[in-house]
Amino acid sequence: MDPLSATVAATQVAELLYKASMLIRRFVKDAKAIDANLKGLGNEIQSLMSIVNSITTAFEDPTVQPSLQAAKDNAIFLNHVIALLTDCKISGTEVLLILESLSGRDDPDNFLWKSARQIRFYRKHESLDRLQARLSSHKSDLQVALGVINMLVTGHSSDRVNNSLGSKIDQLAKNLEMQLMQRKSVNGNGVGEDDDDEDARFIRHSKELIDSATKVLSRQNTLILEDIEVIDMARELDIEREEHESEFEEVEDQGFVPPSNRSLHQTQVPLPARTPSRKQSPKSVDTSVLSENGCISASDHGMTHEMGQNTQIAVRFSTPFTNPPRMIYGLSHIDCVDGENVVDAAGPRVAFDVVDIAADGFQATARTFGNCVPWDLKMSWLTLPENGIHFETGTFDTSTVRNDSRSLAVTAVTFSRPFQRNPIVCCWFTEVDIPYGWRSLRTWAARITHDGFVLSVDTWADRVWKNARVNWLAYDAEEDGRRIKSSVQIVKRHEVRNFSSPWLRDPQARDPTTFIAITELDCGPSRNTRISGQITNITGGRLIGEIGTWDDTDMDHLHCTWISIE
Fold it and tell me: Domain segments of the chain: what residues?
């Protein structure tokens, strides 16, 4: 053969190989495009999954239902979130079915298996593009929903946070308006109300979510304005409070000897309850004028060193009353483990409740919740005598006024019967729920008038608390220092101090009944939370007690309120 024939043959082979090369390049390019499209869809799904997981975590919080149902707008918003999650499930199911059809049963050893996948992809790419756009829309909706949920449940409510969330809602509303305009341009009559039209239903659900989220945000902005007024009031109250603290009795700084060995399980020795005079039989005494007191240790009644304790305690009065008495009660001793000692432990999430008060006794419940691990809880209690002193008492649960973790909870209390002059008001905790961080919480009464007062609970320095319950007592100011006396004792900086106070009546008179409970605490999170207050003795006309901490607790300060009644 001549060279020309060889040239022709070579040229033909070169052209053939060039065509093959171009086909391969084109195939690889198309395959990369498919991979890129599927990767983009995968990223969208991953991002959406992360948001849904965050919403799931938020809904697992035990306070989410009360928080979301505390107001009508919140409940409507919750219903729209559920509808949106249902839409998301429908879209996710469609995507899953298409992806399963794309995967097929091709043999990877077959060179054409990618071609088969490519053909299937091109048949489905319009559906996938539509679903990816829908998932992106769901993600935007759920991001707003998550922001509102976090604002309501975890309470990070501020002008900055609300403005940011408001911007997201505005952007979502603009995107929705664009979708509506696009549908009008295609359909000519906008979005119909037919639920068979999935896209129309999804857009309607998105619009409903925007409307409900806007109402909730507007309500939160109103609350922020109210908070600004309340915070200003709280600052004034703090000034009053500091002035009052300077009037508190100086405590005697004495060494503290912790209980032997297991101080964690030692109980306070309750003072003897008031009983009738020996010259009279109990039956001849009107027991309604008497008062009893005591201190209950939960560890003495079965509380164990584990999470989720619920210890039932039955208490019997030494002398049955004529009628069920009125009572005050509060946390006097908290001893729980920090997270460094027990996996996932948290500090103090504890409560003492009193129920079923009868003439012969009452039922108490010591509770821990979440991941709090207790050594012991103690509750001080005292019955109020019907001896002519005007007493008013009640309980403030911050969850009734506080839908989030804004630092301040305030309620206005109105007495059932006005006092003749401004009374003395004392308050203390029966429940403390601080899931993490510094254990800083306080309660106090201010703006006291003859017919009511303002009761507050808050923290400081941007610290977190979840809930609290406060018991309070108001009594005649004319009787202060006569038949009843009260004060607040303060200990600071890792000290335990004994304190004493003169009982102003005749030292030969019968000893008074006494009560003590925690009013303010401030402890670091790196050590066990161990704080306590107790009345240890009444002798020679003086009331003697001690407050403070022991062992390793990193305590900045502790305030306890005590009350004694003749």
Answer: 17-228, 284-565
